[in-house]
Amino acid sequence: MRIILEQQVSLASAKSTFDRLAAACDGSVTASRVQELGYDDLRSIGFSRQKARYAIALADDVIATRIRLRSLRHATDDEVRQAITARLGLGDWSADVFMMMALGRPDILPIGDLALVKGIAELDGIDYPDKSSIIRRAEPWQPYRSVATRMVWQNYLDRRKP
């Protein structure tokens, strides 16, 4: 749910909505509780129309065991990506963030993440023209691109503090 909420919004906005979701779920966000809340309740706590649809679809998939999130810890990166991106509203960025944050994979480069791309450009003082140039730039970070990504993110956020 956090990853769905973090798509294309500020972290503060996503956290605020997630906190309201957690409160609506009595502190325990589960697939069955999200399903019970339903579309209208999700909308009332701040989910957009799309994100409410995605959240309910993910809850339905978890309940119907079309996806078993816990079993993904033993899957390869490609298998995880396939399982995540097969869900409504979840793409490569969602899969990358899930592998980094939920699974603790050390060598993930979420190339579709705007803060990462902008953060690298700010650090280097140049704009990178395409994804392949960012991938090449990050090659020295292997096999710890997830760690480097977190460092770039932190620097990016620190530069924006008032």
TrEMBL record:
Domain (HhH-GPD): residue spans on this chain: 5-157
Presence of the UniProt keyword DNA repair in the record: yes
Species the sequence originates in: Rubripirellula tenax
Protein name per Swiss-Prot or TrEMBL: DNA-3-methyladenine glycosylase II
GO CC, alphabetical: cytoplasm; protein-DNA complex
MF annotations from Gene Ontology: alkylated DNA binding; DNA-3-methyladenine glycosylase activity; DNA-7-methylguanine glycosylase activity
Catalytic activity: Hydrolysis of alkylated DNA, releasing 3-methyladenine, 3-methylguanine, 7-methylguanine and 7-methyladenine
InterPro entries: Alkylbase_DNA_Glycosylase/TA, DNA_glycosylase, HhH-GPD_domain
GO biological process, one term: DNA alkylation repair
UniProt cross-references to CDD domains, sorted A to Z: ENDO3c (cd00056)
Source superkingdom: Bacteria
